[in-house]
Request: fold
Amino acid sequence: MNDLTKKKLDDLITSNPVMVFMKGDRYFPQCGFSGAVVQILETTGVDYETVDVLSDPDLRQGIKEYSNWPTVPQVYIGGKFVGGSDILRELYYRGELQSLLEPVKQ
Reply:
């Protein structure tokens, strides 16, 4: 990953309390896994931002290297990598996602 892509990722992750790198965006997810993340976050009422990795090949590959996680979507909460749709779903159903989101809710 080049320095420009790393800086862009750093800036996105640190300036947004909840950041989702996904296929599509929150209004038009382009895969079922991305759609599942949006649905879960919408039910929590937390404010979050999305980035469409399909629109930027450098970000699409860069985020995988950045997190050392091979797939998207990827969710960051409070600047920390949480995981993808399966992990977010599991945290939600176990009732643990709300406690992760509590410090970043506005």
